Structure formats: structure tokens, C-alpha cells
């Protein structure tokens, strides 16, 4: 082509030349044309720039002198071309304006117009390209080493799934076999999903990528190594496109996540196991607790039932015996009276038990009408005064020291008689625990919303089991000397007063029982101070054969400021009443007396002293409600508050 252009140039010689010049300038090469004499006849600007020759210097120059700044000898190439054989793409370094340039030189033989052989030189500056090529080679080498250093296995396949490239990891994973096709790879791997479904070859992530899909994070189980051990891999696969967006292959990256998966599974099973264990233990514990509290409840009920049965039997036995004897001796008035008294007494015992159990069971709130404001501190003083004479005896002869710490106005709202009863029970228990002596501490406190009274002793204390069960009715460790009803009553009374009872005790370290009540809401009533209630002292005759009851009631009435004379039977009472010299306001008599019925005494007293206020104390008495002869009746066991109120009522 160049030769024909050259011919044309030679032919037309004017406009033609300029066409040749234009052509020479247009090609991105340094071009020089030598004629048959190997003299330079035509050049372009790129050639002149490369060689540093101007047009004048260049024209006519010998080919052997036409590359003064080439850094290599070109004689050989020139001779070959001049001999008619083209020399293509020889790399020749040039010194070009102080820099080294690399030129790809081509020498092509050509015929000039005279038929002589000339030479065409074409030089392409490949300095940049060469640098780029070197850069590229370096980059590729770097990439390749990265490729091999990757911990993931990388496999590049062609459009048919044939292996094109693999990195070191991929090769190692499938050594010694070298799968050449996707099918071979699939046969080696035998991939399955984690749920165990086997994958067909066309479902392989690489196969999917070859259909144009980008597969991300697929987790599969495969066989690896010579033994075909199971491994878990995470697979990503991407299609590779040619410039026309046709899939020409795929690259698949696999990561071995066997360890991670195993660890995860272990963590998960461990967590599940732990959770199951916690659940099981909780269930067991709950079941145990339920069983324990059911047992306790049943035990308490059983004990309650057994206790009631015992006491009722005790009451019924003499009643039945007496009834039998009564029938046998119906003609004998003395015997009849005697049996009647026995029956009454036995029934009273039963009724007393019933009343005490009732006080435990009845936990409904108090009826407002009977409530009053009670100062616990004052009540403590009362109970102490009332019981003190009996302490030493109760403590089996031991010396009992008293320590009191009483808050000013420890006011609670409730039934004074019941609260007193509760305190009495606590003091009695404390004394029982201190056989041989000790210190009795009673403390009242007003602390925020709580009013409390605590009775402590330095006695034997309680084991955990006793402490647990102490509030149960009929639970006692005192054998025949205990009823097991004291703390049950205390508990019932505290609950009915919207409060609670707490025990603090351990064996050998004494016991504190604390009753905690809420501060009364609303205004305090005027009848606040029990001391204020019955300022008017009465003269009272108390008839009771039972020593404990007699002493208790006497102490109670005296503590309220009354003058009390006590006798044991009907006879002594009659003598007392007959004696007009003795002033008397109130008669309080038991019904079952050893030498007669209290009712006879009531009739007698009513006749002798019409103005006398008369009260009877009974646990069992069919006549009492209708009897016009008495002003009040009290059921045994006598509530202290009720007694004091009735006495005070005799204005
Ligand atoms: P009782 O006094 O008739 O046995 P309680 O209900 O008053 O019945 O008490 C029940 C049991 O609680 C007693 O038998 C005793 O074992 C224990 N207990 C109560 N108070 C005390 C105390 N202050 N010190 C040691 N043990 C006590
Ligand atoms: Mg007791």
C-alpha cells in the first residue's frame, strides 16, 4: 500500500506529493522512505522528531546514517530488508531529547519507480505501552499471589464449566484429583443442602452462575479429602461476561465453614441443653414446692382435725359417762346435781377449744363497731402488771428480768381484748421457754407506717422446723402441757387487725415474736386510753373455782382499778352476799361450781341485792340468754376486753 502510494506520489509530483505528505503525517508512526540507492527520499514529522534531523539534514541521507541516535546497530536489519526480506517489529532503544524511548522498528523492502529496491522504515514508539505491559505483568503477578494466598478456594470456569483457573486452595482441596469439568467437580463433592437434599449438577452454584445468576452465601455440605469426609462450605458464584454481555464463564469462591458451623451447632445444642435443664429444674422445684406446701397444709389441717377431735373426745367422754350415771341416778338429787356440774364443765372445755380455734380461723376484718384505738405501750404495761406475780412459777422457779422499751402512743385500731390475749400468749410462751430464768424484753415501736410490739426472750429458741410450724393450730412441743393454740391465736388476731406476725428465732438464741400493725387511718376516737375507760372503780365479787381463771380475771380487773374479792364456790359466795356490811357493785360468777350451779347463786343474789349488776361466765349454758336474773354473760375463754367493758358498763 505504501509502495503504491509512493508510486502515485512519484507520478503526479505536486498535489500528489502533498497527498503522500498528508498520508505520512496521518499515520501514528515515524516513517522514512529510502530509494534504490538507500538514500532517504521521504520522511514525516514523527521520524524527524525521533531522530532529531530536520528536512534538509534528512533528505538524501544514507540509510546507514539515518538513525544517528539509535542505541543499537541496525546494519543487519537494514541489509536484510534491502535484500528483499521484511524485518518486522525489532525493538530498538533511542536516545530522544535526553530520554530513552523504545521504538518498534519495521523495515520493509519496496520497489521504487525505476524498479530498484528501496526500503520503508516505520517506527512505533512503544515506550508507554511497554511500561504499561510491565505494570500489567507486575499487577497480574501480584494478583496471582493474592489469588493463591486467599484462604478461600477460587475456581474460574468457561461457559461449558471447564476449569480455566484454580487457586492453590482450590487445588489443595481437590488433590489428588484435578476436576476438569463441573460434572467431575460435582461428582467429587456430592453437594447436599444442610437439610440433606442432594443437589443435581445443574443446581450447583457454578451451574447457576453460568445461567447468569449471582449466587450468594449458599451453605452446602460436601465431601472432601481422600476419605470423603463431610465439610460445610459457603459458596458465592458470579457469572463472567464478555463485552457483549454474554456469559463466557463463572468464578466460584468457596469458604470452608465446617468448624464455624460445628461450633455454632455445639453452642446452640449447649444453649438448648442448658435451657432444657433450667426448665426441668424449675419444674421440679415448683413441683417440690407445691408438694411441700401441700404437705404442710395437709399436715396443718390434719393436726387441726386431730386436735379438735382430741379435745372434743375429752369433752364428750365425761359428758357421756355423766349422762349415763345421771340416768341411773335420776332419783338422787345430789347425784343429779353433781353429774350436771360435770357435764357443764366438760362441755365448757370443749367450747373453749372451739372458741380458740375459731379465733384462729376467723380472719375476716374486724367489725368497726367493736374496734377502738388501743395504745400498745399501755397494753404492755397492763399485761406485765397482770401476769408478773405468776412469772416465776411459770418459768419453773427461774428469775425473770424485765426490760421494756415502750414508744409514746403506739396507737393501733382494734379489739383491746384480742390484742391483750395475743400479748398474754406471747408472754406465756416466753416464760415457758425460759425455765430456769432469763430476760423478758418487750418493745413497742412506731416506725413510719408500722406500729409494732415485739416480745423477746433469752430462752431455748426454736429449730427451723418448729419456727415454720409454730403458728399452726395444735402444733406444740410441750406435750400435754401445751395446747398449740397460743401462736395460732396470735396469728389470727394479727391478721384480723390487718397486721402480721413474725418469728425470729434459732435454737439456743432465744426468740422474738413481733406483731406489726398498720397505723390507724382516720381520727382517733376519744375512748383512746384503756386507763381512761374505767376510771370508776367497782367492788366486785368473783366466783370461780378454777384457780388459773380466777387469778387471771382478778388480776385483770384489779389492773383496771377495781376492788376484787374472789371466792371458789356457791357457799362462800352466799356468805359474802348475805353480809350486808360488804358494799358490792358487781357479781361475776362461773356456772359450773363444785357445790352447785352458778344460776342458783344468780337467783339468790338477785333477791338479796336487787341493784347488783350480775354477770355469768360460761362456755356452755342453755339457759343463759333467757335468764332475766343476770345483766351480762361472757363465754369462756373470757376476752379481757369484753370483761372490762361489761364491768365498766355498769354505770
Ligand atoms: P403451746 O405454747 O401451747 O405449745 P403455741 O402455739 O403458743 O402453743 O406455741 C407453739 C410452739 O411454738 C410451742 O410448743 C413451742 O415449741 C414454740 N414456741 C412458741 N413460743 C416460743 C418461744 N418464745 N420460745 C421457744 N419456742 C416457742
Ligand atoms: Mg403457748
Explain the layout of strands and helices.
Elements: H1 2-12, H2 15-26, E1 30-34, E2 40-43, H3 45-51, H4 55-58, H5 75-82, E3 87-96, E4 99-111, E5 117-125, H6 127-149, E6 153-158, E7 163-166, H7 168-173, H8 182-189, E8 192-193, H9 205-210, E9 215-224, E10 229-241, E11 247-256, H10 258-328, H11 333-361, E12 372-375, H12 376-394, E13 400-405, E14 411-414, H13 416-433, E15 438-447, E16 450-457, H14 464-469, H15 486-496, E17 500-505, E18 511-518, H16 530-533, E19 539-543, H17 547-559, E20 563-567, H18 570-578, E21 586-590, E22 592-593, E23 596-597, H19 598-608, E24 613-618, E25 632-635, H20 640-648
The structure holds adenosine-5'-diphosphate and magnesium ion (MG).
What would you say this structure looks like, in words?
It is a single chain. It is built from 20 helices and 25 strands. The protein starts with a helix and ends with a helix. The protein folds into 4 domains: 2-130, Beta-Lactamase, CATH 3.30.450; 150-266, Beta-Lactamase; 319-518, Heat Shock Protein 90 (2-Layer Sandwich); 532-648, 3-Layer(aba) Sandwich (Rossmann fold). It has a 6-stranded antiparallel β-sheet, with helices on both faces. With 651 residues, it is of the alpha+beta class. Helix 12 (376-394) runs parallel beside helix 13 (416-433). Residues 425, 428-429, 486 line the site of magnesium ion. Adenosine-5'-diphosphate binds next to helix 13 and helix 15.
